[in-house]
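Help!! Second protein's tokens look totally different from the first
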Amino acid sequence: MLETIRQNVRVLGQLLGETIAVEKGDEWVDKIEKVRHLSRDVIGEDKVALEELQSLFKSANEQDMLVYARAFSQFLNLANIAEQQYTVSEQGLAELDLAHPLETLQQKLGEIDPKAFAKALKKLHVELVLTAHPTEVNRRTFIHKYHQIALELENNPDDTSRIAELIEQAWFTNEIRNERPTPLDESRWGLDVIADSLWTAVPKFIRELDEVAQEITGESVALDYAPITMASWMAGDRDGNPFVTAKLSEQAILNARLRAAELYLQDFKELYLELSMNNADESLVAEDVDNIGPYRHQLKQVVKTLETTVELLNNGQTLGAIESKQDLLTPLYRCRESLLANGLARIANSGLLDLIRKVHCFGISMVKLDIRQHSERHNQAIAEITKALGLGDYEAWTEAERCEFLLAELNNNRPLIPKVAFSADVQEVLDTYAMIARQPKELLGIYIISMASEVSDVLLVALLQKAAGVSWNMPVAPLFETLDDLNNAPKVMANLLDIQDYAERCEQKHYVMIGYSDSAKDAGVLAATWGQYSAQEALVEVFNEREVELKLFHGRGGTIGRGGGPANAAIASQPPGTLAGGLRVTEQGETIRYKFGLPNLAVRSLHLYASAILESLVTPPPAPKTEWRELMDKMAEQSCSQYRSYVQDKEDFVRYFRQATPEQELSSLPLGSRPSKRRADGGIESLRAIPWIFAWSQNRMVVPSWLGLGQALAENADSNDLMQDMLANWPYFNSRISLTEMVYLKSEPLVASLYDEALVDEELKSLGEELRAQLKSDEATVLSVLGQEQSMERDPWNLSSFELRQPYLLPLHVMQIEALKRLRANPEHPVYEQLLMVTMAGIATGMRNTG
């Protein structure tokens, strides 16, 4: 790692030590330093140091361990901040040789056909869908402080007084929530991310993209160009979250409108100060009755409207508030046209143009709220309706009977919902549709159906929208999650789109959501990713045959086991044709902060997305050769078989998992608004994919992200030449293997063995030994395929970055083990729970992509 970043990390660590000394005295700084040295020795395979470290924490009281845990957790946060800020600074970009993604794109593409690039630009659309999950364990107040520290590192690197103050603020603030956040809390956090970073990053990104467009095509992008838009599941995702209600979603929409109005008010006031010129079209001059200037007169009207909107929304009222972005755009367009007509092009294409692009990208609510519900809840609702109407039990009907009924009702103008008393769950479903009907179209995104598996699942949502009086066709996205559902998705969508009435209703375009989390939990990472790839290929064919635009929505998580990883690699590995309808992708948990937490970081992340998509659109990746496809089919089946032989077939696997990880305790900790299980009972099949991954990352076995893949490669060692061809020429396979390298780097068999030794029943320990042996064997197999001695040796920056964090992670693991032992002996002990949460937060910070 470069000396500049090491120096920044040292300075931050020193300031943290000085802060700790203020409260605990200098001797505590010495104690913490001793633990760090012991940890470093343990990583160097010093068994005596390990025993000393374990003994130290075993004999420590919980209050002392809290100090240790907070110190190492805080340091990991500070190290991450230093790295993030450095990688987007001018010095960091130069020293790391990180070229601008759009410049790299131009170099890759060489001689670009201007028409082809212009066509790709028109198709470029990234919709970032913010989701809140227990992977982001840091409180909003800390995220704000970390953001300020990064800005100080960037703007005042030689003056550390403000940084010292912020570190002191953080140390003397409880970093762990006392209560579980509500969905509204999570929604507000999402709005903060946009306001703090993306609000300024998006127009800057478009400005830079426009420069590239002019250079290649000779023309600027359109005035209404919106390559980046935002949506949110926060306070809209009700699948398995009983706290998300129609009333709460409506409040979240109102909060988003208020926050957007406040930001626009600030921007319009600043623009009012700027546009003091009198050179203007006659129509603008004539309207300036108060003689304040023609441009200021136009903006003054908007400022008044925004002030009224803020006041109304603050009082929970929407009547009279701005309901369309056109209310903001019309005066901005008039001002710009006048400026251009009067030769003031620089002014027209500066802050005014940025504001126009903001309005197009963010609308009047910053984010559009998605609504997500489980298909079973819809079936339950229509079943109560059909029973009340004397039509029978919908849930007992065949698929053909359901579709016949739904299509008939979609074409029937009579009211469907009788005025009877429904169950509470069904009434909540109906209330949600009524809430949708009350909202302006601009405020809502799409409707996602969890665990969709049949045509009727989609038709039913369309019918419930119609019955509730939704006056516009809210786009519907069936979410295909398990491996079986992914394999069945092309057939379901073909049957759906063959219904002429429905194809016309959806205006010849349709969303399909691909689930990464549950498919990986169901079948293992290799079988799941190949299932996702194959399903997308088949969907492209289905949609092309019917001349319907396919809009894919990727439900990726932060981890490699849930479809995570570098965005540019993920995009490059998509099947040909899948980006033509744009890219809609979830950004989850802590990855939101790591990608978009700072304005410059957000700009770079957006450029990475854009350059990868444009490259794929201009020069699509190759379709897999027949022999590649055959080998992948074979390896996917083998990897799935091995994965399920552990997860599903081993009788004691669930017991082992729950003893060897903090999974049992996770559900009771206030880390997110949603319960960690879909049902209160049940085994792994009932556990959400996020806690499943999160728990495995805490003990450093990260089983879901590697199990099955290495064994499949080993069983096909005789196909090594073919694999080398796939690595060199197929982005999907190259990305898959490269991501597995990252998994091996972050796994740590020694740490996992410490969890087993302290927490797992004797008769279950052999399972852990098997898994660790398999991990070691699989890593050797993958390294052999890559021709490497060590994981990540071709990526020295990320390798050294993780090695820097290792000595700070290990003490947190040892303390977490001790916390789990004590907590399991004394359930619900408040200090032990707090200690566990601090160690979880620290480990999640050090691992970076944990959920």
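Here's the second one for comparison:
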Amino acid sequence: MKKIFVLFILVFSVQIQSQTNLKVNAFTTLLTIPNVGIETSIGKKSTFQFDILASPWKSIKGNPRQFYTFIPEYRYHFHEKYNGFYVGAHLGATLFNFQKWNYLNTGKYEKGFGYVMGATIGYQTKINDKFGLDCFLGGGNQQGFYKGYYISTGERYDKAKDYNKSGEWLPYRGGVMISYRLN
């Protein structure tokens, strides 16, 4: 995970001539599920953001709660970049070792991967020259490919030959990101 984060910082450091913001989601971080990102200018009213949401908890009360979400997103700002309303479109990836909400207290969990595609709406405001806030809510379609296991034995409970598949339309991102301008 550390290697991915370092690579992520290096790739976007080439944008040093344009305004770049590092971000952390205040709400999810308080819940011990860090959400960090980087947003950089790519046009007059356009930015590109890449963020990672991670729950590194292998187990909470004996139930798996580990997941990672990687979301690159194009954003269009209606007024000036980093200040005011914007909309975004994204296509991201997920990895999970998690007990789904409808499997709570069943002794079963799911392990797999998936993708998300959707949109975000948000509002950014500047606090001062270096700091800002980004309030956002996003969602869309989530498609998962997973294998089901018993928590107690680790054996598969499902009958699928390869992967089970499921998909939902739901909100899956949101919060308040505190941003710090690098340049």
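Reply: Different proteins will give different token patterns, so don't panic. The helical segments are 2-13, 26-30.
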